[in-house]
């Protein structure tokens, strides 16, 4: 089984505001002492909400997900 693709988290930029955790529609993230962590990475749909909510740019979703209706 391959590892799920999830956004990356730069903990040195994180101010632990919890916006990414509360805004995750799949509840894939939790806040720890160190910062946010994906506790259920398999449920992450790579929607990018966490990246958009992060005020410090600590979360990055550098991949584009596209759906091809002709598959």
CATH architecture: 2-Layer Sandwich
| SSE order, one letter for each helix or strand | EHEEHE
CATH topology: Alpha-Beta Plaits
Assembly state (oligomeric): single chain
Contiguous helical run count: 2
Radius of gyration: 13 Å
Question: What's the total number of strands?
Answer: 4
| CATH class term | Alpha Beta
Structural class assignment: alpha+beta
* Percentage of residues in DSSP E strands: 5-15%
> Mean pLDDT, as a whole number?
91
The rough form would be described as globular
Poorly predicted segments: none
Largest sheet geometry? 2 strands, antiparallel
Give the termini separation.
23 Å
Task: List key phrases describing it.
71 residues, alpha+beta, two-stranded antiparallel sheet, 2 helices
Can you offer a commentary on this structure?
The protein has helices spanning 19-23, 49-53; strands at residues 8-9, 29-31, 36-38, 59-60. By secondary structure, the protein is of the alpha+beta class. It has one domain (8-60): Alpha-Beta Plaits, CATH 3.30.70. The chain has a two-stranded antiparallel ribbon. A two-stranded antiparallel sheet has the order 2-3. The longest helix has 5 residues, at 19-23. The chain is globular.
What's this model, at a glance?
The protein is α+β, with helices and mostly antiparallel strands and 71 residues long.
């Amino acid at each position: 089984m391959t590892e799920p693709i999830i956004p990356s988290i730069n903990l040195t930029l994180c101010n632990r505001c919890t916006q990414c955790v509360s805004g995750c529609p799949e509840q894939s993230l939790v806040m720890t002492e160190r910062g946010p962590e994906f506790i259920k990475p398999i449920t992450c749909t790579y929607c990018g909400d966490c990246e958009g909510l992060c005020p410090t740019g600590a979360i990055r979703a550098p991949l584009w997900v596209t759906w091809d209706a002709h598959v």
